[in-house]
Design goal:
There is one protein chain. The protein contains eight helices and ten strands. The protein has about 270 residues and is α+β, with helices and mostly antiparallel strands. α6 packs across α7. The protein is about 35% helix and about 15% strand. The chain is elongated. The longest helix is centred in the middle third of the chain and has 25 residues. The chain has a four-stranded antiparallel sheet with strand order 3-4-2-5, with helices on one face.
């Protein structure tokens, strides 16, 4: 990675699983919505234990879309994959699509509202949660997340739980107490001992647990916005990203509607 120090997630005992998202049409959304999620999960467990279905993950969710009768489904699980290995990733793509067919068969045959559903799309590429993580000037930790820690150089906020898609049928959830939020330090985007480079998203500097919270799409987008503005400021000020004026960076982020105050987060979501 261009001489950048990094942590290989393959060394993590609980390397997060991959998932293939899919979309169904002709769903009776109102009928399907009447089924509590816990009951859906119990039905999944019963279906798997009966031997009629091969369901490696025994929970998951489906989500409405702007299109009538169309939902996006998040249920598949492909564990123990080194996403940096093209051969393993190819096998995972195939397995993910096999699981899509099986989960759709389960939904269509067992779950109210999905009786007449049809498969209309799968994700163009499998979703990789964890591979390499850069070692940055600061490494976000589990304690930072669960203590809702704030930082002077934070460039984004996150309140997502630690969502660990480890090997096995269930996902491990650990929530930030009292609906708190924590900060993402700018230093997490700066690779240690390397100048002229910024990282954002899945490869940012964090431990396994902290990464399992901050890797969500919204937070990755916020990190990307900060990295982009920092790169522009670096060019205009003719300095390195590490020497960028943090006050100017945060000011530019706020001018471009970044959320850097929990009150703004609450106001925007309500």
């Amino acid at each position: 990675m261009a001489g950048v120090p990094y942590e290989d997630a393959r060394s993590t005992p609980n390397l997060q699983s991959l998932s293939t998202i899919f979309r169904l049409a002709n769903v009776d959304v109102e009928k399907a919505s009447a089924l509590p999620k816990t009951e859906l999960w119990a039905m999944m467990r019963g279906a798997a234990e009966s031997g009629d279905f091969m369901l490696p993950r025994l929970e998951g969710s489906w989500h409405r879309t702007p299109h009538v009768g169309v939902v996006t489904v998040h249920m598949t699980r492909i564990p123990n994959v080194d996403a940096t290995d093209p051969e393993q990733l190819t096998h995972a793509e195939i397995e993910g699509r096999r699981q899509v067919r099986e989960y759709h068969r389960f939904l269509r045959d067992r779950v109210p509202g999905f009786e007449r559903s049809v498969l209309v799309a799968t994700s163009p590429a499998i979703g990789v949660r964890e591979s390499r993580r850069v070692i940055g000037d600061y490494r976000l930790t589990r304690d930072d997340v669960l203590d809702a820690r704030r930082f002077d150089d934070e460039i984004a906020l996150c309140g997502a739980p630690i969502e660990d898609h480890a090997v096995g049928p269930d996902t491990r959830w650990t929530y930030v107490p009292e609906s708190g939020v924590y900060g993402i330090p700018y230093r997490c985007l700066l690779p240690n001992s390397v100048e002229g480079m910024l990282v954002a998203g899945r490869c940012f500097s964090a431990t396994h647990d902290a990464h399992a919270s901050a890797r969500s799409m919204a937070t990755c987008m916020a990190m990307g916005q900060a990295a982009g503005i920092a790169a522009a400021l670096s060019i205009t000020s003719q300095t390195t990203p590490r020497a960028v004026d943090l006050a100017a960076l945060r000011r530019c982020l706020l001018e471009n509607h970044a959320l850097l105050d929990p009150i703004d987060v609450v106001t925007t979501s309500s």
